[in-house]
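Student:
Attend to each token:
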Amino acid sequence: MRILLTDDHAVVRQGLKLILADRFKKAVFGEARNAHEALNRVWKEKWDVVLLDVTMPGRSGLEVLREIKRSRPKLPILVLSMHPEDQFAVRMLKAGAAGYLTKESAGEELVGAIQKVISGGRYISPALAERMASYLDMDWQTIKGDAPKDVDAFETQRMNALGLIPEIVPRYRSTYFAHIFSGGYSAGYYAYVWAEVIDADAFHAFKEAGLFDQKTADRFREYILSKGGTEDPMVLYKKFRGREPEIGPLLERRGLNTNP
């Protein structure tokens, strides 16, 4: 197997090589530091799979992807990026990528993704599939007027509006969301969502102050981690955050525009 690693950081390329060499013992690796090198190596050499970074010197990863697919349409390209899936994944998949992973993904997930794409499949991470399902759920919840009677047609229309590739669509169907069609589940479901709101808002506190800000970490330990059930949870959260949780950070995490 011949694997081309494209990333402008040598330490990232070396790390990928170590992970993959451990599983693919006979693999031959090539490296490209920028878009120009990546395209040259694709045109002049034969590869079984390309690992492509989204952000590289010269040209964007999306441009490189489209260029490669024009000249090597059958070459599987697995995008590996620091950017969250909700920012680039759908665009890269629509442009012809065989899969999209963030650089935070575990080594085993990367290995599994490569195995899938070189066998002719496409890799969609569970996190991305779940996020796409949340969009369908939201579409049902925000219908104005009478609900559509043709569920299949509604699903197709909404999925097409998102611009999804076919591999994502069948993973979740409207009937999976029991809270839409019957009672009894709604409260539990929205409790899950509320937990995500708190999680995203708390993490946003660290993003605002800096991920390793000591004062924020001290407040988090004092008011969240060490108190247990000694006080009302919302009182403790407000002591940590200075206010109640806001939904904005969760909407941002899910790729939804929170600006009017």
The chain has a mean pLDDT of 83. The first helix runs from residue 10 to 23. The chain has three domains: 2-123, 128-181, 186-253.
